[in-house]
Amino acid sequence: MTHATPIRREARTGHLDLALHLAASGLPVLPLRAGKGPFGNCPACTDNACGGRPNMKTPGPCLCPRPCHAWAAAATAPAILSSAAWAAAWRRAGAVAYHPGGAEVTVVDLDNAAAVDWARATLPATRTVTTTRGEHWIYRGAMRSVNGVRDGVDIKSTMSYARWLGPGTGTMTDVPTAVHQLVEEKPAVRPAPRSIAVPAPAGGGKCPHRSPAYLERGIAMAEQRITAAQSGVHSTVYRTFLAVLSAHGPCGCLTEAHIGRLFTAAQSKGESPRHCTDAWSNALTALGM
């Protein structure tokens, strides 16, 4: 995240220009509403019509071709950011946000003066950005995102977004052990992955996914998608899990063996078991399962 002098524009028409500037340096970006909430970046999800999750940290239960909410929508490709599908969001945007995990960084969000004092006494110096209520301390390296690891302290990295408030000051350093410990001490909210038990198709019809060839092809394609990822592995894993659950979850076809294959593919790309569990659980929740 090495950026030139920030482009500061108050007019909303400048948000896309800023986003393109940041994306050119490899920062995945997205538009935010004036109230700091993200947009649903497809027609079906405009104004949250699909009923997306309230905290918008994961996509809502919509059936879009791809996740379109919050961090999952963050992009670096100018063609995506400047597309007609995003035009209305940029016109109405109140700010620009970015996906820290997609940029392989972690933001320690310090929400009050006491939290800032704690960080200064506990954490190694790194790049800092002043916020409306405290500071963002930005470290090199991605990790699991957890809110409320201590009073006034949130960790924002994978499956999260942070508002762009400028490049900050100071030299970025690696995520310290103290931050990892805070996250590890915070129990995961979601349960471990499990086989999916849902009602049989209405009317007792035969599930089309019971065909071994159909299901095998779907799992194999998902494994290939994950292992072929050259960047944005966290996002690729989540989106693949979401796609598999969308296609095969409602019929109850997936087994522990299928889930294990997907987790193995993700771990071969450097994902930890906990990251896999979080991504799978978040996908289940996003689809209302």
Notable characteristics:
single chain, 289 residues, alpha+beta, five-stranded antiparallel beta sheet, three-stranded antiparallel beta sheet, 8 strands, 36% helix, disordered N terminus
- Largest sheet descriptor: 5 strands, antiparallel
Any idea what the shape is? Answer: globular
In DSSP terms (H or I, runs of 4 or more residues), the helix count works out at: 10
Share of helix, binned: 25-40%
Low-confidence stretches: 2-12, 52-63, 188-205
Number of strands: 8
H and E order: HEHHHEEHEEEEEHHHHH
Sheet with most strands: strand arrangement: 4-5-3-7-6
Mean of pLDDT = 77
Approximately what portion of the residues adopt beta-strand conformation?
A: 5-15%
Category by helix and strand content: alpha+beta
Give the termini distance in whole angstroms: 36 Å
| Gyration radius from CA atoms, angstroms | 20 Å
Summarize the structure.
With 289 residues, this protein is α+β, with helices and mostly antiparallel strands. The protein is 36% helix and 12% strand. Strand 4 (127-130) and strand 5 form a beta hairpin.
